[in-house]
Amino acid sequence: MAEALAARFSLSGTRIRQAVRAAQALWAADPAIASGREALDRAARQLAAQGLAQVAELATRPHRWPQLVLPATTLQLLHEIAAAIACRERVFRDWNMQGRTGRSAGLMLLFAGASGTGKTMAASVLANHAGLDLFRVDLASVVSKYIGETEKNLERIFSAAQDADAILLFDEADALLGKRAEVKDAHDRYANIEVAYLLQRMETHDGVVILASNLPKNLDPAFARRMHYTVEFGRPNAVLREQLWRGMFPAEVPLAGDIDYAFVAGQFELTGGDIQTIALEAAFLAAGEGSAVGMAQLMRALSRRQTKHGDPGAAARLRAHQAVSAQGRA
Predict the structure, then answer these.
(1) Which residue numbers delimit the AAA+ ATPase domain (predicted)?
(2) Residue 106 and residue 85: Cα distance in Å, rounded?
(3) Which residues touch 170 (CB under 8 Å, ≥6 apart)?
(4) How far is Cα 327 from Cα 257, in angstroms, rounded to an integer?
(5) Do residues 244 and 236 touch, judged by C-beta distance below 8 A?
(6) CA atoms of 124 and 115, how far apart (whole Å)
(7) Statement: residue 183 has pLDDT above 50
(8) Which residues fall within 8 angstroms of residue 20, CB to CB, at 6 or more apart?
């Protein structure tokens, strides 16, 4: 156990003693912790991640596989990636594939798709499955106008992630990883240096790095070529949208019996993120009215969202559906 923890986390002697004390407290306080090993692993993760928390945002959420509503082929690929994360030490080091590739023992993943299609949730599921923390990096805050500062920021992030054995998620990677420009001035030259540095640093990193991109065609081809896996997240079809709608409300939410999931799924081409936003607004409407969440609240939230996003006919379609439903009940 000690060897495994030492291999995963870079902790000083003082920090190791702190981890042991924290593990003892965790095991005594939390009956859900099944063993001393689990308590020590959790304590070591928390201590090792403190440095990374200063330069990135902890993005681990309690997401699990059943919550991912995606096409079967996409889910299969994600399960293969989960297996690759678990087996990477064996493949790269024990089987010496690292010597064959000449690269690090890390994995580089590209998650491509529109906002709200499940990229961040999938990253969280992979992290939870692997028992690793997920840290989100805001590239906009990393990039600096001062020469050399961007590289220093990136080095701090990768070094801290290495110490913590955490997964890095570079969200909206297009901000820094666009196609390198033809050099016309000093700005272009330094921008290209930053991209080249990130590419080099990713290749020498022993952990898991996920690039999330809304516009994968804008990424520098050098990054696309080096990805071990590329996962495309498309907009859900009507069948998947109905699954998303039906799974959006927790069991604690009081629901009226009049919600027509098939209608809203078939009429409105929404992403999972859109559906989550609308469901939350409908829940707030119902709570404010002291009622259960029903079609009336969903219609109001849907109409507002669709009008805002350039679908003024949504309200009319919803009213027509309401009229037909009322006739059916009469």
Answers:
(1) 105-233
(2) 9
(3) 137, 139, 176, 177, 209, 210, 211, 212
(4) 17
(5) yes
(6) 16
(7) no
(8) 40, 43
Cβ-contact 137, 178 below 8 angstroms: no
Tokens of 320: 């027509």
Give 16-28 pLDDT, tens digit per residue. 666 667 666 666 6
Check residue 289 and give its pLDDT. 97
Strands 134-138 and 107-113: unpaired
Helix, strand, coil tally for the chain in percent (to 5): 60, 10, 30
CA atoms within 13 A on the CB side of 204: 10
Q: What percent of the chain has pLDDT over 90?
A: 46
Q: Is the pLDDT of residue 39 over 90?
A: no
- Tokens 């949208």 locate to 241
> How far apart, in whole angstroms, are the C-alpha atoms of residue 181 and residue 178?
8
pLDDT of res. 9: 62
* Cα–Cα distance, 211 to 175 (Å, whole number): 11
DSSP 91: I
Q: Which two tokens stand for residue 128?
A: 């939870």
Specify the pTM.
0.83
Helix, coil or strand: residue 112? strand
Distances (CA, A) of 250 to 48, 247, 254, 260: 34, 7, 9, 17
pLDDT score at 64: 95
Q: Which helix (H) or strand (E) holds 108?
A: strand 107-113
**Residue given tokens 């998620």 in the structure block:** 169
What pLDDT digit, counting tens, does each position of 64-114 carry? 999 999 999 999 999 999 999 999 989 998 898 887 777 788 999 999 999
- Cβ atoms of residues 283 and 293 within 8 Å: yes
What the block records as the tokens of 316 is: 């009319």
Spatial distance between the Cα atoms of 129 and 244, rounded to a whole number of angstroms: 22
C-alpha 158/C-alpha 171 separation (Å) is: 15
